[in-house]
Amino acid sequence: MAIKTDAPSERTRVKRGFKRAKYDRQTVCDILDAVPMCNVAFVLDGMPVVTPTSHWREGDHVYWHGSTKSRLIKKCAGKEVCLSVSLLDGMVMGRSAMNHSANYRSVMLFGKASLIKDRDEKREKLKGMIETLFPGRWDMLRPITDKELKATAVLCLPVDEASAKIRTGFPVDDEEDYALPIWGGVLPISMQMGAPIDDPRNLEGVEMPPALLNFKIG
Amino acid sequence: MAIKTDAPSERTRVKRGFKRAKYDRQTVCDILDAVPMCNVAFVLDGMPVVTPTSHWREGDHVYWHGSTKSRLIKKCAGKEVCLSVSLLDGMVMGRSAMNHSANYRSVMLFGKASLIKDRDEKREKLKGMIETLFPGRWDMLRPITDKELKATAVLCLPVDEASAKIRTGFPVDDEEDYALPIWGGVLPISMQMGAPIDDPRNLEGVEMPPALLNFKIG
Which residues does B126 contact at the CB level (< 8 Å), separation at least 6? Predict the structure, then answer.
């Protein structure tokens, strides 16, 4: 049975709850950018492993980095992975147990992770990590050393085989249940940034760059 | 090389950043309970797949549910999975790019997911889902029907092969970098519940049960 879909591949096509699915680049990228933490799944000796890690996006690629010795780097380089970004936006409370739900945004991204091998390119990508999250900060920092660069690996995944899923709004109850005197509604949930906390080891007179407050989350 | 560890199994043992690792039941459960959203990884035709879903914990088991037709249910039942719960608690800003980090809490849980087959047990578990998240709500709801029960599957994973990883606090910079006039610190991040929103289809006079405000997130 062929289903009309914009999904870029069969494994990307959302089957359950497909009305919540979106495949357009803007929606996918907005979710990838909403929180700098993803979960990367890979297969290790035939078994599934999923590890949270920080990620960032530049253009048509998602990146993550780590020690060259980390399992998440060594076991993903050149391999098929599935990367998930998910945000919980609310608890949805219907008039029956099974019509309770959650509001959320999520992206699943499939593909082969590739290692950035060229050292200059790797430096550019690590600069991209800092500048994506905190524009302007790279130039304020102690420059990256060759030793650090050598010890750090960057993995890259194209934003290509991606699907997004979004649920918003109120419960969808069975029509007859709306006549029941049961409260339905939503408990909204959001990620919030608190006031920055100075490192007690900051030198006297060193102030937080105000641009850091531009950091967006959620 | 044998490393002294409390890890319940080799695949559970945290290798990188092992000083951040914890294996005690209380720490693991506190993180599992902190947010009702996890990512479940499984292997499908040799490829990794990871899907976000709602979960809850009762005692020594984590549960999630879904349509009996959902891929996450069908492909995980009786299979090895890896379940991840991760919370981003802050952005950690050091004096150099590579000493930027994140504060977080995460749990990785390995094991074989099993289907709750007995119908009465399944009903009890679904009640447990509602009561874990919203104590007292089950009895306020339109009772679950046999049809709903039949269409819903519950999967179960023992909290057994689990590891937690936690990072808190300030950047850990290279000792000589503390002498630099660069701001270091933390941007705290937290999940917050907003004011509940009434479903516009609530009957007149139906008020939100105040106990729902006991819902805890983060």
Answer: A97, A98, B65, B144, B149, B152, B154
